[in-house]
Amino acid sequence: MEAAIGLASALVDSVLTLLSNELVGAYVASSELGLNSKEIKRDLMFTQGLLHEAQRSGVVDNHGLQGLMQELSAKADEAEDALDELHYFIIQDDLDGTKYAVPDLGDDLQGHARHGRHALSHTIGNCLACFSCSHMHGDDVTNNPHDATNLSSDGPIDRLPFHRVDMSKKIKSVIEEIHSLCVPVSELLKIIPRSSNNTPVVTLKRPLMGSTTVQDTLFGRRNLFEQTIKGIITNSSETLSVIPIVGPGGIGKTTFTQHLYNHERTREHFPIKVWVCVSTDFDVLKVSQEILSCLEGNKTANQSTSLDQLQISITQGLKSKRFLIVLDDIWECNRQGWESLLAPLMKGETKGSMVLVTTRFPSKADIVKTTYPIALKGLEPVEFFTFFESFIFGGQKPEGYDDDLTHIARDIASKLKGSPLAAKTVGRILKKDLSREYWMRVLENNEWQKEKNDDDILPSLRISYDYLPFHLKKCFPYFALFPEDHRFKNLEVIYFLIAIGIIDKDENYMDELVDNGFLVKENDDMEGEYYVLHDLLHELARDISLKECLNIYSRASFRADSIPKSIRHLSITMKNKYDGNFTEEIIKFKRKVDFVNLQTLMIFSGHAGTIDEILKDIFKDIKGLRVLYIEVESAEYVPHNLPNFIHLRYLKITRYNSRSQMTLPSILSRFYHLKYLDLSSWHGSDKLPKDISRLTNLCHLLETKELDSDIPEVGKMKYLKGLRKFCVKKESVGFELSELGELTELGGELKICNLEKVATKEEAMKAKLVSKGDLKKLELLWGTEHDQGESDVLGDSNELSDVIDGLEPHPNLQSLVIKNHGGSTCPSWLCGSIGLLMLTSLCLEDVSWTILPLGHLLHLSSLKLRNIPRLGQIISGSSDITDRSCSRLKEIILFRLPEFTEWVVTPNARWFPRLELVHCYGCPNLRSFPFLEEGSGSYTSLSTLRIFKCPKLLLPPMPATHIDVSAGPSRSMEYDEHDLALTGHSGAASKFTWVQLPKLTSLRELRIEGDSSFISMDLLLNHTSLTSLRLEDCENLEVDGFNPLIAAVNLKEFAVHNRGGDRSRSVAAALLSEMVVASRTDVLLPSAGCFRLGTLGVDSISAMLAAPVCSLFATTLHTVIFKLDQRVDSLTEEEENALQLLTSLQHLYFWFCPALPSLPRGLHRLSSLWSLHVGYCPEVRSLPKEGLPTSLQLLIVEGCTRELCEQAKEFEGRNPYLRVDAYKCID
Fold first, then answer.
1. Which end of the chain has fewer CB atoms at under 10 Å, N or C?
2. Does one domain contain both 836 and 863?
3. Residue 671 domain-assigned?
4. Could you tell me the strand order of the sheet in which 873-876 lies?
5. Where a domain ends, among 419, 450, 481?
C-alpha cells in the first residue's frame, strides 16, 4: 500500500507541476479544451494533500484503495506524458519564434478560426496519410525521416510536427479521467484509518539472541578475531571503550561477538560479563534493567522503574571490577540516550572495561564508538565454501559428491557473496536433494530468493529495508537496474532518480544509505569517490522492485514467463555474446510486455550489433522514455526512432571504440526536456552538434574532453550548472563573454581561454563572474608569450590590468589559476582588503607582476608560482591582520623565479605553523625562507622539502622527524611519522644518520634499498611496532641483536633480498633459522610476530621450505615471494612436503631464480592457491606434470621460455575459470 500511495503521489505531483507552467496551464484552460481548469487543479491539489498525509502517517491495507491507486497512477502517468509532450512543443515554439502550441484564449473569432483550421487539416491529413508521410498541414510541421538517424553534427535538424487536434483531444480526455478519480480516492483516504499520527512505524520481529553459540566453530576471520581479542584484553589505558561491530544482516556479527564473549582469554580478563539483546527497542530504562538483572542474577532487579535507582545500583555493581558488556543488534539510538545509558558505566575505578555493540547501521556505530569500528564483510571464497559445505552435508560428505556437484556448488557459492546467512539458507535447500538436476535448477532459478522464513536471507535483509525512512525506501529499489558490483557515482544515481521523478532535487541520499548500511563509500586513485552496494542487497533490490524494474543479464538464465507485464524500467547487461535460448526468451519478452510507457532503458557493456538485433522492436514501441543508457559502435546501432524520445531527461551515450571518428547524433539538439547528458565514456568525435544550445533545460553535461568549450550561444542554456571550458572567439558569433553572463546557475570549475581577445573592462564585466556564488575553481588564461607581443590585440599593460579587474569572481571562490597575464600588477580584487577571503588555492604562471601581496588571503593553503620572471617579492601580512596572514598555508611550490629575492613577513606574524610541503626550483637569487630561519620554530609540520638549483639558499639542520630530500635519480629519502624509505643512501651522503634511526620508534613501515652502510639489524631494536619491513640489496647487513620475525609482534609484511654479494650467505636464511630456534622456547613464542605475518619475501627457497618454518606460518601466511635466489638448483622431497603445510597460501611468486629447474610438483594440492607468478626463471620449461590446483584463477608467466609460455596458454584453454598472462617470452 505504501508503494502504491508513493507512486500515485509522485505522479500527481508531476501533473500539478506541469499544470503550473504558465503556457501549459493556459493551454489546458483554453476554449478549445472546454475544461474547468481551476476546479481540476483545486481537486488535484486536494488529492495531493491527502496522498502526502497518507505517506506521512501511513494507512492500513485496503484492496479497494489499492485498485483505485493503481488506476489513478495509470491515468496520472498518461496525463504527465500528454502535458509533457505539450510542454515540449511550447519549448520548440519559443526556440523557433513560432506559435503552433499557443493556446486559444476566449471565444473570439480568431480562436474559432484557428481551431477550425486545425480540425480541417487533421481530417485532410488522415485522408492523405496513405499517400504521403511528409506533408505540412496548417500549423503542423513535419519531420524529415532521413534526419531521424542522421549522425552528422553539422547542419540544422527538422522540427517535430505538432498535431494540435490530437493533442487537445488527448489532454482533454486524460484530464477528465484523472479528475473523475480524485473524488473516490479522496473520499476513501478520508475514512480509512491511519496507522499512526507520525511517521509510519514498522513492526520488526527480531529473534532474541543470547551469548550461547549455536555454531561451535568460527569459520574464517581468524586473523580479525585474534586482533580483536588482543585489542580487548590489552586495552588498559581507558576506563571504558566502546567497539561497534558493523555489517549488513546475515553477515555474522552476533556469531562473531558470541565467540569473542565466550573465549577463554575473555573469561579470564573480565570478571563480569553481561549480554543484552537490544534489537529495535532502544529504551534506556529497559536496557538498564537488563544490565542490572544480569549483574545481580535475579529477576526482581529489573522491576524498578526509576532510572536513577537503576543507575546507582549499576554503578555500585561495577565500581571496582573490570567488565565486558555486549549490546547486541542495536537498531535505534540517539546521542543523548546513549550518553545516559553509559553514565553509570563510566564511573568504574578499574581501567580496561569494554562495551561491544553490534549493529547494521554505520550511523549508529558513529554515535557509540570510542575507537574504530570493526566492519564485517563476507567470508573469503575458500573459507566460505568450507562453511557452505558444512551446512549442506553436516559432518561428512557423501560418496556421491563428485567433481560435477562441486563445480555447481562453487557456482552457487559465488552468487552468495560470502554471506553466512545465505550459506545457511541455500545449504538447507541443497540438502533436500543431492542430485545434479536439482542443484542445477537451484542455480539457474536462484531458488533461495523464494524462501520466506524469517531466518532466510532475503526476509532478514527485508527488515532493514522496511526500517528505512520513506524517502530512502522509494529510492533503493532502483539500484536493481544496475549490474552487480557496479561502482555508483553519486551524481549518476541522483540524476537518474530526478529524471524518473522519484526525487525533485540533489539531496544527500547516497550518504544516508551509507549511514543505514545499504551502501559502502570507497575511493579509488583512478575513479575517485564511489559507492558499492552491500553484498546481497542487490538481490534484495531486485526482489522489492520486481513489478516495475527488470535487469536482464545475458550470462544468466532468463525466463520471460516469470516477468510481470507492469515493467516500466528495464536494463540489459551484455557481458558476452548471447546464445539462441536468450534470443528466444527476448522475443517472448517483447510480446508479453507493453513498452509504450517504458520509462527507463539502460544497456551496459553492449557488443556490436546487440542493440540493433535484439532491441530494434522494443525501440519502435517506446514513447515515454525518460532515461536512456546506450552504447553505440556506428550509426546503424542508433535506434531508428531516437527523435521521438521527447520526454527524455537523462541520456548516456557510450562508445569505447575510438578507431573511427564517429560523430554524435545531430538529433541530440531536439531533446528539449533533457536535463543530463552523459558523454563521460564517449570516445568518438570531439564535436558537439552545432545547435546543441537548443537544449535549454540542460543542467549538466558530463564529459572528459572539454567538449563544452565549442558550444555557440551557450548562454541560451540558462539552467547549466557546469561548464568546464569557455573559449573567447571574436571571429565566431556566440562566443563572447556575455554568453557566460547568462549562465546564472553556473558552479563547479570554469576555465576561460583566449582572454587576449577581450579588449576592455566593460566587455570583461559582461561575464558576470562576481555573481556566480557556486563557482569553486576559476582559471583565467591569456595567450602564449608570442600572443602577448601582438600590440594590436593586447594593447598596453594598463589595458590588460583593466581587463583582469573586470573579471572579478565571487568572494566564495576557493581556487584560482591565472596564466600568461601581461599586466604589471595583480588585480585589486585579489590583493585588496575586500577580495577573495575564502580562497584556499592560488596558482600563478607566466604573469608579469613584480610584487605579490598575500596579506588578506587568510584561508590560503596552497600557493604555486611558476615562470614569473619579474617577481621580486612576496609580502605576507598587513598592518591590520598580521597575526593570521599565511597561517593556513600547507603547500608552497616555487618554480623558475629568477628575480625572486625574498619573502617578506611583517612583524608579529604567525609565520607558517601548518606548512607541510615546500618545493623550490630555479630561484638563483633566493637567500632564505622566513619559515626556515634558525630559531623560528615555525616548521614543526614540515614533511617534504625539495630544493633544486637555488645556490644561495641556506638551510638550517632539518628536524629528525619530517624530511623528504631528493638528491638525484638513484638516491632518495622519504619520511613521515610512520613511514621511512631509503634508497641508494649511505650514512655519509645524507644528513640522516643511522644514529637517528633507533629514535624513530613510531615507525610502521620501513624500506631500505641498496644501502651498503646499513650493516646491523641491531639498529632496528626499538622498532617493535613495525607492520611492514623491506630490506633489499643491503649487502653488508649482519644479523645481530634484532629479529623482526620474533620481536615485531605486529609485523604483517616482511621481505629481505640480496641481489649480489656473497652467494653463500642469506640474511633471510639466518633470520628464519633463528625464529625456529626461538619457537622451541617458552618465552618468545607463540605470541611472536610470525603468527600475524601474511606476506613473506625471501631470497632462499631452501631456508623457507623447511617443515618447522612452514608449520609456524601455516595459518596466517597468504603470500610467499621467492626472489633472487641464486643458489637453488633443485627442490628436495622434504621441501616439497613443507610447502604443503602452508594451508592458507593464496599467492605464490618465483622471481629471478636463474638456476631453479622446475616448479614444485605438489602445487596441485595447494587448495587455497589463487594466483601463481613465475618470472625470469629460464630453467623452468614446463608446468608440473601433476597439474595446478583447481582453485587457481590467475597464472602470470614473464620473461621465461617460450615453451613454458605456450604451455600456460594451452592450460588456460582447458580451464575456463583461469586467466593466463604470458609475455616477454625468450627462445
1. C
2. no
3. no
4. 851-853, 873-876, 902-905
5. 450
**One-letter amino acid of 1193:** Q
Lowest mean pLDDT, pick from 140-144, 1082-1086, 1215-1219:
140-144
Q: What gap in Å lies between CA 642 and CA 709, rounded to an integer?
A: 26
Pair 843, 859 in one domain: no
- Name the residue among 652, 668, 748, 658 with its Cα closest to residue 703: 652
Grid cell locating 359: 549493529
- Residue that terminates a domain, selected from 799, 827, 849: 849
Instruction: Report yes or no on 979 lying in a domain.
Output: no
Work out the pLDDT band at 667, boundaries 50, 70, 90.
Answer: confident
At residue 1098, what are phi and psi to the nearest 5 degrees? Answer: -135, 165
CA nearest to 1222, candidates 1206, 1214, 1211: 1206
Which amino acid is it at 101? A
Q: Over the chain, what is the mean pLDDT?
A: 80
Check residue 477 and report its DSSP letter.
G
Together in a domain, 341 and 277: yes
Q: Tell me if 489 sits within 8 A of 21, measured CB to CB.
A: no
482 vs 594, which has greater pLDDT? 482
* pLDDT > 80? residue 644: no
pLDDT > 90 fraction of the chain, expressed in percent and rounded: 31
On whether both 740 and 819 belong to a single domain, the answer is yes
- Rounded-to-integer distance, Cα 389 and Cα 379, Å: 14
Question: 983 in a domain, yes or no?
Answer: no
Cα distance from N-terminal residue to C-terminal residue, the chain:
72
Same domain, 1077 and 1139: yes
Q: Cell 478520508 maps to which residue?
A: 190
pLDDT of residue 1202: 93
Do 822 and 918 belong to one domain? no
**Structural domain harbouring 901:** 850-956
- What is the secondary structure of 678-742 as a DSSP string? E-TTB-S-SPPPTTGGG-TT--EEE-SS-GGGG-TTGGG-TT--B-SEEE--TTSTT-STHHHHT
Statement to judge: residues 735 and 773 lie in one domain: yes
Contact assessment for residue 928 and residue 952, using Cβ atoms and an 8 Å cutoff: no
Cell of 856: 588578506
* Residue 693 domain-assigned (yes or no): no
* pLDDT tens digits, 63-108: 777 778 778 888 888 888 888 888 999 999 999 888 888 776 554 4
Cell of 980: 621511512
Residues linked to residue 1172 through DSSP beta bridges, in sequence order: 1148, 1195
Tell me the pLDDT band of 122, cut-offs 50, 70 and 90: very low
What HEC string does 1155-1204 produce?
Answer: CCCCCCHHHHHCCCCCEEEEECCCCCCCCCCCCCCCCCCEEEEECCEHHH
Sign of CA dihedral 1156, 1157, 1161, 1166: positive
Instruction: Provide the CATH number for the domain around residue 386.
Output: 1.10.8
Contact (CB, 8 A) for 125 and 140? yes
Q: Which of 525-539, 897-911, 1004-1018 has the lowest mean pLDDT?
A: 897-911
Find the angle CA(127)-CA(131)-CA(132) to the nearest 5 degrees: 100
CA angle 752, 758, 759 (to 5 degrees): 160
C-alpha cell at 228: 580483536
Q: What are phi and psi of 163, to 5 degrees?
A: -95, 95
Residues 751 and 879 occupy one common structural domain: no
CATH code of the domain covering residue 1213: 3.80.10
Q: Give the torsion through C-alpha atoms of 1205, 1210, 1215, 1217, to 10 deg.
A: 40
Domain with 261 in it: what CATH number? 3.40.50.300
Total structural domains in the chain?
6
How far is residue 602's CA from residue 549's CA, in Å, rounded to a whole number? Answer: 11
DSSP 95: H
SS3 884: coil
Residue 779 β-bridge partners = 751, 817
